[in-house]
Specification:
The chain has 2 domains: about 40 residues, no CATH class; about 70 residues. The chain has a 3-stranded antiparallel beta sheet with strand order 3-2-5. It has a two-stranded antiparallel ribbon with strand order 1-4. It is elongated. A hairpin with a 2-residue loop joins strand 2 and strand 3. Helices cover about 45% and strands about 20% of the residues. It contains 6 helices and 7 strands, in the order βββββαβαααβαα. The longest helix has 10 residues. The protein is α+β, with helices and mostly antiparallel strands.
Length: about 120
């Protein structure tokens, strides 16, 4: 009878292991997996992935950074995806790459967007 050795990976303190956008503190490697299959990421990266807010909260965040209602409405009119997200989404997720793109049109950086989500 052959026994197999299980390798346990544990993230450093304040960090997480990520594979396929799933986050773990500790994992037991399965057959065929190696340590290279997991990336160690900071708590900030993990929180950014799961951060979300309502469209109302997001628009209020834009307004608090000096973006005017007229600018927001103009962007909504010019982009169907933004229109759908702000009018029909239950939550806006920080991981959505559309956020950096649309906020960049207002001169906001990804760090500014993180601030809207309370991540910095």
């Amino acid at each position: 009878m052959q026994t197999k050795q299980i390798t346990r990976l544990t993230a450093d303190e304040g960090k997480y292991l990520r594979k396929d956008n799933q986050f773990y503190n500790t994992v037991d490697l399965k057959d065929g997996e190696t340590t290279a299959d997991y990336e160690e990421v900071s708590e900030k990266v993990m929180k950014k992935y799961y951060a979300q807010m309502t469209p109302r909260e997001f628009v209020l965040g834009l307004l608090s950074r000096g973006i005017t209602r007229e600018q927001i409405e103009e962007l909504i009119k010019s982009n169907q995806q933004v229109w759908a997200e702000l009018n029909y989404a239950t939550f806006i997720e920080r991981k959505n790459p559309l956020l950096d793109e649309l906020c960049g049109q207002f001169g906001l950086t990804p760090e500014d967007v993180d601030g809207i989500f309370g991540l910095n």
